[in-house]
Structures
1.
Amino acid sequence: MSEFSELDRASAHAIRTLTLDAVQTANSGHPGMPLGMADVTYVLYKHFLRTDPQDASWFNRDRLIVSAGHGSMLPYSLLYLTGAPGMPIEQLKRFRQIDSLTPGHPENHITVGIEVTTGPLGSGTANSVGMAIAEAWLATRFNKDGVTLIDHHTYAIVSDGDLQEGVSHEAASLAGHLGLGKLVWLYDDNAISIDGPTSLSFSEDISTRFRSYGWHTLTVDAHDMSDVEKALREARTITDKPTLISCKSIIGKGLPKQGTSKAHSDAPGWDDVKAAKRSYGADPEAVFHVATEILAHWRAIGAAGTAAHFAWQQHLQLAPAELRAQFEAAVRGDLPANLDAALPFFDPTEKPIATRAASGKVLDTLVPLIPNLLGGSADLTPSNNTLPKDAGSLKRGDFSGRYVRYGVREHAMAGAMNGMALHGGVVPYGGTFFCFSDFMRPAIRLAALSGAHTIFVFTHDSVGLGEDGPTHQPIEQLSSLRAMPGLVTLRPADANETAAAWKIALQESGPVALVLSRQALPILPKNNGVEQGAYAVLDDAAPQLLLIASGSEVGLCMSAAKLLIAQGLRVRVVSMPSWELFDRQDAAARNALLPKDVPALVVEAGVSQGWHKYVGSHADFLTIDGRFGASAPLADVLRTFGFTAENVVTKALALLA
Amino acid sequence: MSEFSELDRASAHAIRTLTLDAVQTANSGHPGMPLGMADVTYVLYKHFLRTDPQDASWFNRDRLIVSAGHGSMLPYSLLYLTGAPGMPIEQLKRFRQIDSLTPGHPENHITVGIEVTTGPLGSGTANSVGMAIAEAWLATRFNKDGVTLIDHHTYAIVSDGDLQEGVSHEAASLAGHLGLGKLVWLYDDNAISIDGPTSLSFSEDISTRFRSYGWHTLTVDAHDMSDVEKALREARTITDKPTLISCKSIIGKGLPKQGTSKAHSDAPGWDDVKAAKRSYGADPEAVFHVATEILAHWRAIGAAGTAAHFAWQQHLQLAPAELRAQFEAAVRGDLPANLDAALPFFDPTEKPIATRAASGKVLDTLVPLIPNLLGGSADLTPSNNTLPKDAGSLKRGDFSGRYVRYGVREHAMAGAMNGMALHGGVVPYGGTFFCFSDFMRPAIRLAALSGAHTIFVFTHDSVGLGEDGPTHQPIEQLSSLRAMPGLVTLRPADANETAAAWKIALQESGPVALVLSRQALPILPKNNGVEQGAYAVLDDAAPQLLLIASGSEVGLCMSAAKLLIAQGLRVRVVSMPSWELFDRQDAAARNALLPKDVPALVVEAGVSQGWHKYVGSHADFLTIDGRFGASAPLADVLRTFGFTAENVVTKALALLA
């Protein structure tokens, strides 16, 4: 164990003074957590965390996730102190200002060195579990032939709020189940929340709770560096369980209002900032100033990380060429060159097949070809068709499989997948029923915001699922996912569109939602426009009528079109699997496919909201508005909501009348 | 303790045979849980649960929530067996058929005697906590002057899946914190989930987990009636903690595939149904048949509940007239006759005030007048302005307050509020940031589906919240709430619209979302159309231009309109706080306010999705599309996204050019 000196304590205080100066300059922000956890974080950096401030992309770095993202001045201070070139002092001075690299909450897509975007409480806990799964999975694959390419820890700083959120329970339970021995949560146990003392609403025995999940638990004085170091060392010795270190901290330590909810957020005023600096033994008048000796000390810590990175690079050279090539391909996220050829083709003369089943067949093909793919489901494996042929499941102590049994934990699944995607070397996909996308919406949003390449597999995509009824039948989910910026939603109409959708999902850099049917759908005669978001499955050069649909309603429109054509009408049937991809097309292409002066009938088994944008004033909607679904066999449900070829014909003729 | 006889066992088997006959006839459904929990439920009904099958609305009945809603044949069988007039045998024969009273998952708005709508796992756990809070809160208010008007238990049947969902952790933690002594969860601990044995993903020590939350825990053999009775009796003796009874059950008990994931769902086939009936000692050939003696026994259990109801009604007569009148008003949900007069009026000459702050002032007025109102917040009380003046908080052992400290548990808060609303006697409201409505979306949906009168208070409603940045700034939330059937979303433009919105929220029978600003907004000169969903704040009989906005963008449009009018233009400014209320108006009124042949500029700090429906082809949108927000001070953020009067003018003139 180390002795900690005045320099060590002053180095921790540097985090505090930078935090206070930034928050007070911005007149906005949350000083409480960084001030409370400065000592813990200092010990972590000095003795444990290996990152390279000069190259934040070092693949084998330890990951530090600040789940309590409101404490964003903690990671920003650490980046500056350790010498990250992307975080000069000027950026700390521009904390929470427009276009700065120091936004209110940490955003990985904005700031180099930030691992994940956090702020909505709980999210970082699930991200950290995903990162630890990614580490263990990649280690199984790449630590062999005498080399150890992947061997890092994942640390997360979590708050009372994080641990109250349901997703933290789900994530912790999953982590305990899988025995993630390199995962350590540093719990900022400061007994204060926004409303006041946590005792207002929170009286769990946290250590007991985590032991019930299979974690190792420790408690330390967050301001006793030796105590912290001892706990972090002990955590290293526990290799078959994650570790929770409860750090008994004083929120806003050093501020006159330390230890109260008033120290959590908002600028304390310069007088209080000065008082805090005095309590640290720092110059009360110096602003954004770190003494030379202290900065040099921090830079040396940063340099040690750079040296560790260099050593790892040397070690990488020892790897056999083939293993190294595989590793580098995994890091880059290479896809097979022959992806198109590899995708299964479904013959239109074959019998109808549910798009979820087609998706399963696509995965049977793709998963062996793309070693980065790591699948899973929130306990709906047989329904989601997400388990590829012969794929094993990850188990405590054996991560050689290709599949994660997430349990009925949709939110943690999504958050863990985001963590894997942002870890790198993994392209995660995971399934649940489409209706339950609601449970993971905060994580889908964070994937969209942070650009995580996560693939969400949503089956049972409409009232067409039948008997399970309204609680399971999506009505508004398509519309509400389409409302989310940065997410590509794809609802393929048949098996071949499903294969094309998977190709797009793999090629996109951000998150993709695949929305798949429970029921069998006929295979369309033609399929060449999924990448454009919409295309004519059945065309007429001078259509009198547009039938526009997605997913299961495209086949319905094809049936109706035949009846309409038999009556002498000129009909174009447009399959529109993705609004987002269609919106990327130029205006000419969009107008050519969907001319606004042609009457249009939109057919989709969900709310009409948003469709008006794609049609002119002469349009009608065979959709489900103002009500939820119904529990009954498929045919009865479809009849109830008017999804029959006859009704499409009737509505179309009424539109043209 | 009782002796249990063959008749008792046969009575439990009646649940099983009805379940099997219904599932097999429908060729769809989930027999596993009802077969596994039949013995437990029988004991519960025989010795503990007091409900009146003849009058499901008896206010002081015990509540039984089937959180594992896929096991819907359990409550349907119980309703039939105890003689509920709304559940004849014909309805069991029509299980999962169109328009039956026996949909796939239990729906309280369809079936008399079902307490809450369940199916999405975990939801019932939070509902049950809300019901138990409602009971304890109302008991504090109405058990006095020598009478005990409220004194019931709340039971919930929960599955492995329920306990994996994050919301169950949140709900259990809250229940333990509040010491809800009349809450009992019956955990169907069958060790099987859809993917297979729960050991695939779930290895928690459940009893330890619940003890960490402050629960009393017990474990029983779910098929040993004496053991079950003993545990239920013990639970009654624990009055300061909720109780978890882990019922070690065999899923699908009696089926040849009992104890495996194949017994969870789907029809087992008539051969297996017959085999199961043989194992129960029942006639394998009889279908939908309950022996006379057994049915009579069940009906006697039902009759005992009716007698208990009668006794309670007698007891109610003993209450002092004033108390009784108050009680009956609470049950009816009476509002003050003078609601309009009671609402505060905000003078347009007063300085701007945030709608969240106006909401706080409205609550200061309303809460003392409406004793049914029970407020709360997910640890954002000072930000949400949800705590009325002088209101105390509910505490373990003291439920005399008017406010629940939910902790950072948005999902459980929403689910608990739904439970309170469906319990009756309580109109719950609860606050969080609008962005975090995502966390509670499954519960908002269930409120909308089941018609729960829950009031969601969402503050910090746009990028206008400023520095906290994209993780906290709603962009797509308005659109995604508007997509949900059955929910009224209101985004008032000023303090007076906020007061009107609260009035509507109280008068609606279903859920309402109030979407409120963080930043101060000017008080509009006029305010007389919130109830119609939209109205002209500034009118012109023959407008050349419509400016349509909601919330904070209405004031902006007013400023822009002045500039446009100064240029000689005829402008109508429409405030549109609620799409749903506007859609209830007739077509003539809608077209008169928003004529489609007048150019329109929609101004809203969120995605444009859905607005196209309300404007003609000559329209433009000053909205936020294709990106998330930005972290910066308010003025900089608004400028970045173009929400300035100058830009509204520019866009308007471009539209007219």
2.
Amino acid sequence: MSEKWVYGFDELPAAEAAAGGSWDGLRGLLGGKGANLADMTRIGVPVPPGFTVTTAACNAYLAAGESFPPGLWEEEAAALARLEGQTGKRFGDPANPLLVSCRSGAKFSMPGMMDTVLNIGMNDAVVEGMAKLTGDERFAYDSYRRLIQMFGSVVMGVPDEPFEEVLTAARKKAGVETDSELDAAAWKAVTAEFKEIVRKHAGEEFPQDPITQIRLATEAVFRSWNGKRAFDYRKAAKIAHDLGTAVNICTMVFGNLGNDSATGVAMTRSGATGENQIEGDYLINAQGEDVVAGIRQTKPIELLKEEMPGSWAEFEQVCERLEQHYREMQDVEFTIERGKLWMLQTRDAKRTAQAAVRIAVDMVDEGLITPEQAVLRITPEQVDFFLHPQYDRVQVERAIRAGDRLAIGLNVSPGAAVGQIVLDADRTEQWAKEGRAVIMVRPETKPDDVHGMLAAKGILTSRGGRTSHAALVARQFGKPAVVGVAALEIDLEKRTIRVGERQLVEGDWVSIDGNTGEVFATKLDTVVPDINDPYLSRLLGWADEKRRLQVWANADYPADATRAREYGAQGIGLCRTEHMFFDTQRLPHVQRMILHKQDPEVVAACLDELLPYQRADFDGLFRAMDGLPVIVRLIDPPLHEFLPGQLELALEVAALERDGADPAKIAEKKQLLAAVERLHEANPMLGLRGVRLGIHLAALTRMQVRAIFEAACQCARDGVDVHPEIMIPLAGHWRELEMQQAALEEEGRKVMAEQGIEVAYKFGTMVEIPRAALTADQLARFAQFFSYGTNDLTQTTYAISRDDAEKGFLMEYLERGILAENPFASIDEEGVGKLMAMGVELGRRQRPGMEIGICGEHGGDPKSIDFCHRIGLNYVSCSPFRVPIARLAAAQAALREQGFTAK
Amino acid sequence: MSEKWVYGFDELPAAEAAAGGSWDGLRGLLGGKGANLADMTRIGVPVPPGFTVTTAACNAYLAAGESFPPGLWEEEAAALARLEGQTGKRFGDPANPLLVSCRSGAKFSMPGMMDTVLNIGMNDAVVEGMAKLTGDERFAYDSYRRLIQMFGSVVMGVPDEPFEEVLTAARKKAGVETDSELDAAAWKAVTAEFKEIVRKHAGEEFPQDPITQIRLATEAVFRSWNGKRAFDYRKAAKIAHDLGTAVNICTMVFGNLGNDSATGVAMTRSGATGENQIEGDYLINAQGEDVVAGIRQTKPIELLKEEMPGSWAEFEQVCERLEQHYREMQDVEFTIERGKLWMLQTRDAKRTAQAAVRIAVDMVDEGLITPEQAVLRITPEQVDFFLHPQYDRVQVERAIRAGDRLAIGLNVSPGAAVGQIVLDADRTEQWAKEGRAVIMVRPETKPDDVHGMLAAKGILTSRGGRTSHAALVARQFGKPAVVGVAALEIDLEKRTIRVGERQLVEGDWVSIDGNTGEVFATKLDTVVPDINDPYLSRLLGWADEKRRLQVWANADYPADATRAREYGAQGIGLCRTEHMFFDTQRLPHVQRMILHKQDPEVVAACLDELLPYQRADFDGLFRAMDGLPVIVRLIDPPLHEFLPGQLELALEVAALERDGADPAKIAEKKQLLAAVERLHEANPMLGLRGVRLGIHLAALTRMQVRAIFEAACQCARDGVDVHPEIMIPLAGHWRELEMQQAALEEEGRKVMAEQGIEVAYKFGTMVEIPRAALTADQLARFAQFFSYGTNDLTQTTYAISRDDAEKGFLMEYLERGILAENPFASIDEEGVGKLMAMGVELGRRQRPGMEIGICGEHGGDPKSIDFCHRIGLNYVSCSPFRVPIARLAAAQAALREQGFTAK
């Protein structure tokens, strides 16, 4: 196979052809960084010469048991020779040395997860040559020691600590605070010690041959694809493990050649708010890694305008050019070498949800993208951020007055998070597993900390900026984060943190605000923010125009319904009536009814008590949803749920008996226990509930229907436009529906006759067991609508008891990759989905145009919403907080179906 | 609509045309009795003239709110006029009166369930005329009082008791024992009193007009279709409620005109054994109802040969003619009026299972029917009788020596039944509902007693013969019965029974033997009989030739497998391995393993203990099934099933703590309780079991597979032809199968390598949750066979927890007719069956010719077997005792598919 493994940055057309012509294919082949370097080269952006070794090469290398497949190294060596020609420099030539960087670059950005080696090409001879050429011995040795350190660490597996110890000792010896204060002699000595460290730890010398350096670095980058931290990151970010990484070999440019040199990272717009202005950090006289490592205090990019106005102007132009080209906000790395701007990387920038929305809307206004693209660019999860908790400002003010505001840092990832302080990633993960809320507090974060960051409620660091590792990762995974809190002193040994006089120990509660950067030494309550962001409103407005699916909400109380409506719900898809029975005023009547369910008189008396409550519940709901449909589900859960637990009660009776308690009290408890025992079921999920209960205890559902119709009639009389739809749960056989529906419809008609007013209504059923879907045509003879109860449908189709399994084997399945997805989170399309599609087809065959929706929790899951769109449901119904998300997801489903894409 | 409602017995062609030409249609239109009367008339059998009012007329009458639809009565009146012409007699003419009977006759025989009125046409004038015409005043008044009594009871709703009181008083007054000893004067007086009773109870006079009598009697028969006892009977016998009954009006002939007259009932062969000789009972000088009522002691039919040789010869000829014509054993009613034989009814005879099999086989030998017809004539339930329990003869001999054999009666319905004496039907039903075994003991049974007979284990009566109500019903419903135990004295008031010196009270235990007629005053143990009846063997041999489905058996132990093989099983479709773990020697190891399942060393140690046991189990099974496949299912149930119950344990711990028990003991119990709590699941049916457990506790299934392969290798070395098939339960996703199967197959190969011998094997899965059927194509990539676990598949498809529901709402559903059938008894074809058909189609699409069977309990249910045949399964697997039944049912399914019928 004559595959080409290596492409120069200036060989884009050949790479495109090899990748099948698509941008996605090109990114797959060259990695995101490599593709962008080549692309920037083509559009005239200043990029240092270099080339990319493809992801295919990486995969071939890994597949061959970590050895170069035939031809690969030869091709890379040829590319190196070509690079010498392009730059007019030569590897290992002290008089004119060619130095390169070696960076990983996968298809999807994995910041800091894989390895980089800079300054490759230096050796004992070259360093001397460079000192002469630049006239800066300090720079030359600083560069060389960096290579030895990075190469030692990345390629030769030497730990970081001995290098750091040498640096600390050097600073101490020189009596200085920072590395930049060390002079040439110091660096020369450090270099010698570094080489000794490498020899000692790796058992061999630091290689002097530049070509060997490149070869070994290439291999190290390849191998880093399968490193633990990269693997964990991919798992969390749902990136496929078989993509491989490319390796980018790029001519070195130096930001540390003096005060006319600089290096920095920037985003073309604000990653926090989306405001259209360049945002970033830079350092004068520094190498690139210094900026993202968060070690030196960076300068905000605005200062560059003053410090290097010429470079700034060129940089601004490049940024605009890049946005025009990619039609996306970019995240760039640049270096200014003696006044000359070089772009080292560009990629689509990460941003907060708020920023993403604003940028998408702004770009439509700027004519960069269409509204369809804007809608497709925002992920439903991003909409979710607008619903994230925030702190109640009154409480915040109180905390401030009480002196509980510890500090203010950088607000790099929005949202409010409350938790106990933990000072390392492992313990964070451990505590979180125990169900504790944790705020992970670190001086700075590293890729090794990601498992802790994922487990934490929020992240707090004393160092780092907006583009620090902590900020990037927190934003990507939606964790509230405050970074760069300089006032924060962390003592990792004593497990304490201190701000001024105030000391907290690990385990103390803190509250952080990712929106404001505030840190509180107390446990604050959170509230849900207002969703009426003007940019989001415009975006969702476009979404509403594009979608075919309606979005309804599951709401049991009028307040929920009102909120759902504010969020854009077009109906109530599920009002669970049994929640109402748990109210303390009502539960005694419910329990009495259950204990005497064989006695029609007692049952009737209890129902008489319950009727006014239920009627009032429905009345509020109908008024809140004036003009929109409201689906009320009749009682569903097994009766024992309204009674105390059998085990507790049995132990209580045993205890009372042994204590010689009042016999009357014992008798009463025993009677209750007997009732609980009678109602006990081995598998309540598959037991006496839903329509079965409605048939068994017919008076109860009759009362519920009476309450619905009495409320509806009253509302209608008051001019409210009511659309009650009564839903019978758990039907599995048409005879159940025939019997239950006839009895209930009779009651409804009776109420309307009594009240002298007619309201439009529907009767329908929940499709939540496989048999209902399999015989949907028969059910549709009676049911005027279907609503998929996908929680139960998944439980029965998969034979998985959700509550049990999500604590047990299902988690094991997900962890071990036996199941790729939790079927309770996203609809199992191959199994449950097949039944759903069958139900739609059979139902509408019997009753053309039948109203069919979904009210299981999947109704708020974007992937499931896409599926619901594809099988032709009329609506999805989800929790009020998911309504905006569902509106977007429904629009995206429609747009995708019509062939629209985000780019 | 110009429908014809009435057909003369001599108008068969017209009726046939109206019924669409089929015999089934004709029976539907005229009822079984009417169709046969017309048919007998056509083939020249002596039948008194008469006509049939159709079932359609009945339905029209009932549909019209119990009133004659237009034209019906006019047509019946015309038929009556025609009857006068045919007989030359006239209604109400004292000089030449025409008397008729009015009998119900539905499509399917419902003996005694509906009403009959004899001697219609008599009145105060006719009775005098008849006295003169016959010269027998006693006969005339006896006939008249019978009409008044029957008419009063059936048509006018007068209770029986006052009539019986009058008769008792009359006998007492005359100082005689039986009615036949009463003289004319006595009957005349009784007649007057009967008319008075009618007047008093009905509030009106007994109608004197014969035409009115017929009209009212016709209506009464129509209405009796919806009477409670007819309704209950149809429900029990699964006869549709919308068929309606016909009314047969037939000229009266009299068996009570002196000693040259007689009446009787007979079967053309033995209803008990099937032997080819006429069997029946008759009475000289009696009317027909006297025979079946069981009131007078009848004579066996053989005696007729001596008493009336001429009539006997004619009767024998008629019986043979009828058998030739119907190609079935007949049950006939006849009357001899002054030496002239009249046939009043013929119908297919009821018979014991043994008789049915012998008759079918004999009729093939006699050339009357084909083997296919023979196979289709035997119901699977009849084969079941051959497997019914019988008494151990050793115990019986012991009981006889101990003086516990109370009496010997008529062995009218086979099988052994043991239970407590109950003396009425209501209490029988009550006790049976409470789970008690009851023998219902009655002087005789009546249609009102059927609910008790159905609830009883067996029936014992002191009166009645082989054709008595008790005998017929017991046989039809397969209840062991002994009748006509003359020695038995029943005191309904004191609730005791007595035989000679021995007195038993209600609640005492008795054992009856329907095969021998013996009654024991003790509780005997039953044993299962030998199935090697030569007639049955021939029949099943024919069945085996006709069927496409194989029949396998579910067997966990070698002894079960041996029995299954004797019964004709062609493989083991399900060996449940977990049963083996409950053995007292093994359970401690199992429990220890569960308690320490996180500790691989303890688990391994426990499994080492269990391995030899499992290997020995499989060894025996493979040897028993030499040459045939054996499907071994890996562990299926949730682990908590091997531990004590949570509630019991919690109460025990509480008690120990309060009693201040040994702390070590408490700690031990608490540890166990904690483990039970950890394993507790809200819905274990949908929990950690089957393949989920196999994955979770991989070492356990690995041990099981090792045991299977070690046993198989050892057997193979000994020359046994082993075919192990390993079944993974509860798979729902192909990844489960991929993972589990690979690990297990590896273990199997390892064992074979160790043992140095190869055996053929298969890996497959149980399809028992909806998702497995829905994704059967994916599962079939791994599974080499499927076996439908329809118990669980029904539970999940229907969302019904079997154990809970069969104690609860499912029974309510069946009682209220919401579900026509228990889906755990017969496959729910519309729901579960749809999934099964889908699974077969998808599975074989992926793996052509794939072996697919069923191992749920439905595998032994004839209706489900028919379904399994239709969807193309390879085999059904059922309990060993159901194997012969399944062999027949499978053959019937194949024959039905090919268009064969029983007739």
